[in-house]
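JOB MANIFEST
job_type = single_chain_structure
chain_count = 1
residues = 589
[input]
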Amino acid sequence: MFATDHFVLQPSGSPHQPIPPKDRDELTAKDILRFVRSSWRLCLLWIVVSLGVGGAYAALSPGYYTAYATILLSSPPASQPGEAEADERVYVESQIQVIQSDEVVGRVVDHTGLAEDEEFVMDDSLRARISSYVRSQLASLFGTELPTAEPNIRHEAMVLVRRAFSVHQLGSSRAVEIGVTSSDPQFSAMLANAIAGGYIGSQRERRQAARAEETSDLHKRLAELREKAFVTESPKKLASDPESAERARVLFREQQSAAEVYRSLYNALLQRTHSDFSASSLIPSARVITAAEPPRQRSWPPTVLMVALSSMAGGVAGVGHALIRQAMNHRLMTVEDVHRSTGLDRIVGIARIPRRRWNVVGPCEQSLQPVYSKDAPELHSSLSKIATRMRGVQGRQVSKVATRMRGVQGRQGGFVIGVASPLGKSGSSTVAVHLARVIAATGQKTLLVDANWQKPSMDQPMLNAEPARKLARAFATIPADQEGLEVLVLRPTGSISDLNASLSISAALQHLQQEYSCIVVDFHSTDRTADLEAAMGVISEVLLVLKARRTFADHLEGILRIIPAEKLSAVILTRINRAAFSPNREYRP
């Protein structure tokens, strides 16, 4: 279905002269806009497919759940006199390392019994399977045996636990958050609470051990002081010698003075011990301020992230696919594409015509193609321009085309116009019948030749039927405005070679030139037969029909190799997308 009035004409220059490469490589905003218009559906398709794949992955992949427990760390120890004050952030970072240490992780593994849980310890991931398979294959290839070492189950359990959780500080506070990720939400919460409890228990045991050691040292020191402060020997009897008695009394007084000093030290140390114990009991230790609860929503894969990644991946894939198709396919979608690809100047763009705009001219004989019985008035204006410009006549009435065609040509016999296309189902038969109607309306004796001999044969008897050598002929009539349009149908009545069919078409055209003023030949597509090339010596001009979005630049260049430049009348690009179709616009290369 077509729509017309997109006519391109540039009479100067050879129609086969390509545009210089530098002009082809120029990228303009118009090219970008056309690329977007032609590729947005492909990008949208890729995005939809990518979203579907992402949704399937999110639905079928095992979900992971993350449970969080929050610990408030104890205050950093007070600095001793003469020492620099400890940085609280450094203290928090050191405690995070303690939480991730083997001391705490091993305590968690022992208390939870994960080392005895075979399902937890056994690494059944795809990476482990591939690694085990590769090692076994390499061992069998080199004829060696894999080392059999006794696995350390506790160490493997500690490694798995360390991989499953993470610790980070909350802002600049002394609160740290422990996150555990697992496929089981109950297990995630249990392990997060166990890690928090393991750290707190480890810290409590360390403080208790330090306090016990300190208490033991104090008790030893107090015992020594008590022995010196309260154990004194009083003189039993003074010596009779005055000098010796005096020395004994002086020694006793010295012992009493020393005992008083040790007694003072003992009381001070005892009081300090009680005060330190009371103060240490008031210092808050690490505690859990938020216990982990089994999460309801899985943390991986996140829905928002999957949608974003799928959309981005689909968009990138769609744009890449469109660029590759643009670079490799070279589809002809607009008249600018035809001109840019080959440098052709005489181009007619025809958009789709809705079915409601097609008319049935009347009942046709069974020997004719069904498309010959349809008529679209919108095609007549464009084909009238083509008929007028075929012989270089511009600005004339169509009714004078026949006279000027033969006069300008100065040819003997009828004027033969070949209508062909590089691919089938491009609309060449529709263009041929409409062109024949336009020329017949001028009053010339016009004949439409249906040379599609590979199509199914007709039931009615044929004239001049000579199987294996010539195509059979049958005349029919299409209803028209005046007397009707004559049609010659060429069909084989038996098996015939391509060469004999082409020669039969050429011979028929030479014979018909003596009887008709203008002959319009509806050829097969050149990808199926060589009839157009074989009849090029008889044909006066060729009207080339292309189908938008289906014809590639390679197809066009291939058919142009067999058409002489002086015989190419025009190129018709059919079924152009109406969104990219601009009527009454003249292209200037």
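[summary]
Residues 335 and 386 are 16 Å apart (CA to CA).
Residues 65-290 form one domain.
exit_status = 0
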